[in-house]
Write a structure and sequence with these properties.
Chain lengths: 314, 275, 120
Amino acid sequence: MTAINHQEHFDHKIDNDITIEPRDWMPDDYRKTLIRQISQHAHSEVVGMLPEGNWITRAPSLRRKAVLLAKVQDEAGHGLYLYSAAETLGITRDQMYEQLHSGKAKYSSIFNYPTITWADMGAIGWLVDGAAIMNQVPLCRTSYGPYARAMVRVCKEESFHQRQGFEIMMQLCKGTAAQKKMAQDALNRWWWPALMMFGPTDDASPHTARSMRWRIKRFTNDELRQKMVDVTVEQAKVLGLTMPDPDLKWNEARGHYDFGAINWEEFNNVIKGNGPCNKERLNTRRKAWQEGQWVRDAALAYARKQASADGTPA
Amino acid sequence: MNQNLHQLNYILQLADNLLIHAQRLGEWCGHGPILEQDIALTNTCLDHIGATRSLYQYAAELVNQLTPLERQTMFTSPALEQVFTKGLPAKEDDIAYLRDAWDFKNVLLVEQPNEDWAYTIAKCFFMDAYHLALYSALKSSNNSVLAGVADKSLKEVKYHLKWSSEWVIRLGDGTEESHERMQTAINERWAYTGELFQASAADVAAMEAGYGADLCALQTTWNAQVQSVFTLAKLSIPDNSWMQQGGKEGRHTEHLGYILAEMQYLQRAYPGMEW
Amino acid sequence: MQTFFRYGDYGDKDSTGGANASVNPVNQNEWPLWEVFIRSKAGLDHKHAGSLHAADARMAIENARDVYTRRNEGVSIWVVESKHIHATLPDEQEEFFEPANDKVYRHPTFYTIPDEVGHM
Ligand SMILES: [Fe+2]
Ligand SMILES: [Fe+2]
């Protein structure tokens, strides 16, 4: 086939909802965009383990400790599934780590905020996992096969994450005044960063149209953000918490909630590395990776010794 | 000490070992050498928490049956005592979160810091080999709760031991650096292994009454297990035979205080609340 | 330099088009990639579950257990190092699979049997 033929064939598949698989011809930009998107997503899962992970040792009950551990562990799994999906595109996990550790690759800016109280475990599960699920469910039908299949697995596992977070919030909200204050404080701090998770507004996202055509994005940032607002407002009512947005009100004509302006300056600042925890998160990841080097080397050295003793090539 | 207290102490020894071990292993979550192993270690940690919860639930039942005098002999933890002052029954979390360090009966080994992967593997391997022998014995305990926990945990610990043994071997026979790190970790932690087989009054009472394990027999199995893995790993058992002890009697290293301060902080700062 | 293969990405980079992975220097000390196949319950086939990294086969099986069967997803695990999987090329699609399209007589519905014969 000629290059033109390849392109036509690819377009035909995209237009007809046929999955693209690793060995299929694909345009360079499609491959590059996917590598960036999937690896960023993977990095977010892995860095995302840190803010919650730092409460594992302080979880206030053994049940909560087990749930939190299982939840953070799931995020490691999600990172793993996504790195694997990206690896089918011709990049290795080590190379992706290199990009993360050098600061070249980005991850979701939400994980650069600190987890200050136990209620943050609730707010993260409820809002951050909630927003992630909203982003991820449509990706189960994305055009790239390995990505779609990874997302199916991720989404199946995510379903308990949001519920456990909401349960934490509920428990706090029906607790003492101090506990309820803790819950409200967490909502106040996490709400806006959670809305920023959907990315810049549609008019500021130049690649949205192309990504939508490629089905590596299925709804626009603003569509998903609106959905998040609509759903969360109702859930906050159940909790008896106040949404930290004075401009929030139901718009009968639109059939949606109107909400206040997002502080994009803050968003850009955090992306640039000036969030409260950017340095700490990245340093933690680097440290874990560097300190693990001798361990990984040892395992490989041992495996090679064994293989040569067996007479099989390593 | 009467039989009730011995029994409770025996259960607490088992449960506290698992809890403090799990607490330390939980520190690894998100910081492992590679994602796959991060996930593996968390699985083990979750197994320990599952077992410790069953044991604390049982311990709470036993605590609730004690007379006030027995309770005072047993515990000197004002936060726990307050639960009783309020006329409430103790629950699993009260036992875990409201006791002070001197009421904890875990061995000193599990409270030692993780240091690095080699130290952690050494600790896991020693504990896994111990737990395998222990649960194998407790399966035929005449206490049905203990026998049940042992039966369930046995399947888990077989896997844990496979995992930690393989890592001991891999590190011992991997690179020069890993060999040295593994041997150092073993040398440093070896002095904490003797306590596992040092019978406390509770251990003696438990064995005599038929619900506990015979520590001498356990030690023989454990030694053989350790020796065979070390041989494969090209590692050696340290010459120094001096053994630290005190954990089973509530005399701990400095580390436990910090562990509890962190673990119990919410329960202590916001007493009596549900989470 | 040694060529590295990945699942679904074996050799023949030219025919798959797009960015060429071998441009990037690959870390020779990265644990190899493995493909994991899981039998979800007795009687069923093993099905591709995903990939992971492991230093050797033993570890790959254990990692697969820890990563892919945490929710009771399996009763048996196969692993194979990704470089050992061989696959059809997309360019062979037509000659491989289309000739089977018109062999309708291989399917039971091709044949008419009187109703009174019953199930056959
Ligand atoms: Fe996730
Ligand atoms: Fe999640």
